[in-house]
C-alpha cells in the first residue's frame, strides 16, 4: 500500500496506529482495545506489532513491541475477491504480563456504534508507512485526506462491491492518493470506519466497512 500526495504526519498525532511486520513485508493496523489490533485479513503472516511509532527505522522510546497470541481472520475472508477482508490480532502481553500501556503515544480508536452508511463526501483520513510514490519509501508516518464515494459511483469501478466494502478517494486527483498501508484505518470524525483493503492502481480505494461486522467483532473480542 502507499500514500500518494500525502505529507508527513505530526509525530504521534495518530496514536492508535500500529506498524505490523509481516515476515519481510509490512502492513498497517490500529489499536481498538488494549490487547487487540485490527488489520486486513490479507495481511496474514508471522506478525510483530509495533505501537507508538513514528519513524519505524528507529528504536524510539515511545514504541511498544508485541508478538501475536491469536490470529482471528474473518471466517468469510476470500483472498480472490477481498470479501470480508478483516482480522483481529490478540497481542501477546509484554514482559510484565501487561497489555499495551495507553499513554500519549499509544491510544485506542473507537469503532462505529451502528451500521448505517457514511454520507457521500464525508471527509476522512488515512495514514501509513507505505511508499509515498513509486520510487520513494518512507520510514515515517504519512497521512492524506480522502472523501467517501457513493456506492453507486463506486460500483462502476468495482462491480463486485458488497455491503462489507466502502470506497474513498480524492475526487480531483487522477492518481490514487487514497491508500495508506494495507490494513490501516480509514478514520472519519475520529472513528475507525474502514480498513485499507484494495484498489491501489486508480482511485477510489476500497476499504473494509467496519460497521458491517460489529457483531463478529464483539463476539471475537469477548
Features:
single chain, 222 residues, mainly beta, Thrombin, subunit H, seven-stranded antiparallel beta sheet, six-stranded antiparallel beta barrel, 2 helices, 14 strands, disulfide bond, MCT1A protease, protease, Trypsin_dom, serine-type endopeptidase activity
Give the gist of this structure.
InterPro entries: Peptidase_S1_PA, Peptidase_S1_PA_chymotrypsin, Peptidase_S1A, Trypsin_dom, TRYPSIN_HIS, TRYPSIN_SER. This is MCT1A protease. This protein has 222 residues and is mainly beta.
Overview of this protein structure:
- Keywords: Disulfide bond, Hydrolase, Protease, Serine protease.
- One of its GO terms (molecular function) is serine-type endopeptidase activity.
- It holds the Pfam family Trypsin.
- It is a single chain.
- With 222 residues, the chain is mainly beta.
- 7% of the residues lie in helices and 34% in strands.
- Strand 3 (25-33) and strand 4 (36-39) form a beta hairpin.
- The longest helix has 8 residues, at 214-221.
Layout of helices and strands:
Elements: E1 7-8, E2 17-22, E3 25-33, E4 36-39, E5 47-51, E6 64-66, E7 68-73, E8 87-91, E9 123-128, E10 142-148, H1 151-157, E11 165-169, E12 185-188, E13 191-198, E14 205-209, H2 214-221
Antiparallel strand pairs: 1-10, 2-3, 2-5, 3-4, 4-8, 5-6, 7-8, 9-10, 9-12, 10-11, 11-14, 12-13, 13-14
GO molecular function: serine-type endopeptidase activity
Organism: Probosciger aterrimus
Protein name: MCT1A protease
Q: Helix and strand succession?
A: EEEEEEEEEEHEEEEH
Specify the CATH architecture of the largest domain.
Answer: Beta Barrel
Number of strands: 14
CATH domain class name of the largest domain: Mainly Beta
Give the CATH topology of the largest domain.
Thrombin, subunit H
Mean pLDDT: 89
How would the global form be characterised? globular
* CATH superfamily label of the largest domain: Trypsin-like serine proteases
Pfam families: Trypsin
Protein name: MCT1A protease
GO molecular function: serine-type endopeptidase activity
Organism: Probosciger aterrimus (Palm cockatoo)
